[in-house]
Each structure stands twice: as C-alpha cells, then as structure tokens.
Amino acid sequence: MLARRCAVLLIEPREALELDWQAMLSGGGALAASLSWVALAPHLDREVPVAAEDVAALGRVGQTVWQPVATLEQQLGDACVARLLACGLLVADGGGLPDGLPDALAHFRARDDVLRAQHWRPLSAVAHMFSRWRGMRSESGMQFPTFDELVQVYGQPPEPAVTRGAQGCAIALPQPEKSTLDGVLLRRYTGRNFDTKAQMPLALAARLLQRTFGAQGRREMAPGASVLKKTSPSAGGLHPCEAYVLAQRIDGVAPGLYHYHAVDHVLEPLHMMSGGAARQLALVAVADQQWFADAPWMVIVAARVARNFWKYRNHAKAHRALLLDAGHLSQTLYLLAAEAGMAGFVTAAINEGELEQALGLDPLADMVVAVCGCGLPAPGDYVELRQ
C-alpha cells in the first residue's frame, strides 16, 4: 500500500486560557495557558485534533509523491502512520488496507482527489471550507443586536467616512447632475419586512432572473470554448456563479428548489415541497433571519469553482474573484428589483451546509456564496430616498 499527505493541510496552534488557582493563591499569575494543535484539511470538512509528534510526522511526508506505507512506518512509527491514515491526513492508495479501514480510506482518497481536481489555492480552500455554517440558528448563537446595543457593548463605531491627505488640500467636486438612473439607484434598499401575502408574478421573476443571471450573448473564444455575456462583470469573463431558486410564492411555480439555466432561460425542478416546507428551508437557509425568509423567493448563488479555477489555477486571487462575482450579481438584482418597485436583499449569514445538502452540491466543487432575493415590502416599510 502507498500513502502521501493530503493535498491541502493547515496546522493551527490553539491556546486555551484557564484560571491557575494554585499560582493565584501563591501570589503568582492568575491565568495558565495550554497549547494544542488542530489540523484543518478541506477534504475532511472537519477539524482534526493532532498531537505534536503527529505534526512533526506530517512535515516529513510529501503531498505529491506516493511512498510505501512500510517505509513511512519505519520512519515515523506504526502507531503514528495508523493514526494519520485513520483520520485522513494521510491518504492511501493500493491494496493491503488494515482491517476496519478500507471504506474510510477509500472515502478520504476520493475526497482528496476531488479537492486536487479543482485547483484550489490552499489558503482559500481552508478559508472556504471552515467558514461555512451548518445548523446555525438563533438559539445556537445567531444573534442580531440593535445598533444601540452594539454601541453600549463596544462603544462608538469607527467614523462612517475618513479624511486622508494633507489638511486644506482637498479639491471640491461639482454636485452630480441628475440622470434617469438616479431614480432606480435611490429607490434601492434592503427589505426586511416583506408582504407575506403578495405573490411574485412569473413574468417579473423571469425578467429578474434573465437580466441578472441570464446570458445576454455568447461568444466562442476557442474551438469548443465559449464565454457568456451578462449584465454584471466576472473575472476572466467566466461567469462561474449559478442561480438556484427557492420558490415560495411565484405565480404558476410550485414551492420548491429549482436551478436557473442561464442560456436556455428555464427553471429546472430539483426538489418540490409544500409551502410550509419551503418556508422552513428558507428560514434555515438564512440562519433564522425571518425578515428575509418571508420574501416570495430566494436565489442561492453558488460558484462552480472549476469554471473559475480552470484559468486561475492555484491563484491567490481566484477565491476573492468568486466573492466579487456574487456581489456584482446581487447588486444587479437589487437594481432590477428597485425598478420593479420591490425591496431586495443579500446575505452571507447562511447555512451553507444545509443548502449544499438540499441542492446536492459538493462544497469542494460548488461554493455556496450568498442568498439574495426580493419581494413587495410590507405596507409602510419603505421610505424613499430623495436628492
């Protein structure tokens, strides 16, 4: 049997502080620190506590070249190699697997292969996989204090605008001239109180999807390789972000999950459900932010990382570009919603784990970035901004 280190691995030292009663009673310091090591490997999707000797051992095994397990056992010790194989930090290839481990080792190898195939930048893969939420609810720590409460706890926030440069050297600019776009820009706002009885007209939903996420044109860049023209920019013109619709109240569309096909301009049914189940999934999706869950529909934005990383392989900026792409799309949806007299929203405070499960997505290949949507505001919710 052969083995090598997993493709991406970050070892984090963690310090825990606790009261040292003996030292405190003897007049010494009140706090004692203990150090532990945690392995963050994206293909595992969980933290793995490791011993200091395991950290040292992992530093002696490469991630590319396969080595005989027997050789590693001679170098590192049988028990150490067995531990690292059992937790997936070493991945195995070939026969002769220890009893009780074949299924687990095959799973670790398969997940590691998926990660390698995507061409993630290591730090970006760690940041993505270990910043996702699963099961975050209001009772488990998802709290939204008011601005007043934040000021009471943390004091005044940093100033909303800052001054840079030498004093007295600023150049006064003329006031902007009014234009037809101003009306839409100044009506754009984040809705937090939606009319729970209002339906989303199908024709309007279709327009919002097509103008935000749909292809406005297609261009062949090389034989068999094309890019889409959309109303928002995208790194490299690749447009990796896919739109998945959670419908609650769209005329003529049953509640459930759909995929929007950017070229064919169709909704592809994925999972139909009752209205109550759709509302519950919406609430889970946005981590109990019920003010967003009341919208007639949501769009889950998930990036196909292979589309972006095909060009930007192991690139330091590729992950950031995916986040920017999702931001561009959400603002376009905001403006189209404002034009239609609706309130929009976008949030990154989402339970990616549950959304991945509901949509059948692999987080190593399809990166759920944000949830956005829009709908008619509840009566009296909106105060128009004017110049």
How much of the sequence lies in strands comes to 15-25%
Radius of gyration: 26 Å
Main-sheet strand order equals 11-10-9-12-14-13
- In the CATH scheme, the class of the largest domain would be Alpha Beta
Question: Mind telling me the CATH superfamily name of the largest domain?
Answer: NADH Oxidase
Work out the helicity level. 25-40%
Count of domains = 2
GO molecular function, one term: oxidoreductase activity
Protein name: Putative peptide maturation dehydrogenase
Domain Nitroreductase: 186-372
Organism: Pseudoduganella ginsengisoli
Précis, in short:
The chain has 387 residues and is of the alpha+beta class. The protein has 14 helices and 14 strands. The strands form four sheets. Strands 11-10-9-12-14-13 form a six-stranded antiparallel beta sheet, with helices on both faces.
